[in-house]
Amino acid sequence: MDALVGIVKECDSTSAVYCAEDSAMAYKYAMEERIDLFLIDIMLNDNDMNDVSGIIFADKIRKIERYYFVPMIFLTSLEDYRMNAYQNLHCYGYIEKPFEFKKVKEIINKALQFPVKDERSNRFLYYRKDGILFSIDTEQIVYIEAAKRNLYVHLKEEDIELPYKTCSSIFRELNAEIFLQCNRNVIVNREFISSVDETNRFIHLKDGNDLEIGRIWKKKFLKELKYDN
Fold first, then answer.
1. CA 130 → CA 133, 163, 176, distances in Å?
2. pLDDT, tens digit, for every residue of 51-104?
3. What is the C-alpha to C-alpha distance for residues 226 and 203, in angstroms, rounded to an integer?
4. Which residues contact 85 (CB under 8 A, 6 or more apart)?
5. Ramachandran region of residue 131, left (φ > 0), alpha (ψ -120 to 50) or beta?
6. Is 136 exposed, middle or buried (CB count within 10 Å of its CB: 0-12, 13-18, 19+)?
7. Which range marks the domain in which residue 169 is found?
8. Residues 178 and 196 occupy one common structural domain
9. How many domains does one find in the chain?
């Protein structure tokens, strides 16, 4: 695991790498973070020679819409001839153990550049609270606001608090063509913008609320909104 983390960091030093020793922890990361590449050991239980828990995990992940096309690379032994069993999971490639660093680096580099459907096109925003997984229909989000280490998602009909989330982390999960960040602590759905006061740096929403455009965010925000500067 440590060796693979090192190789990923060599391929992309800016990547965040999440390590899990069991499928439960891996699934938790998959739900709470944005994963662009899965490296999955087929045998997660070394004490069971018939263990295929890695495959079961991969099958579970593939049934989640935002992970339909995200590359998966399996770690497998040289003696494993059941490769056809993994075709249904759209496996990107295999790393045979013991692995060669050069070959592993090549396949990881290629996988990280693999064109996939952007997760942010997904209509639902997922979050976990009190151990329960919830989803939010992003079309119902008017704006998202960060305050006191929590995020507050303002919907058309209600407000939802997301503890321990940041604007930057949540923005990566949203459709960038619809959601725009107007200041350090606020993300707005362009569909709910009524008008923009460029001089005073305010956004007027259709529900009557006003949002401030940050001074250093103004140029970028207006450009993304397709206003002429």
1. 9, 10, 29
2. 778 888 888 898 887 888 889 998 877 455 455 556 667 777 878 888 888 989
3. 14
4. 55
5. left
6. middle
7. 120-224
8. yes
9. 2
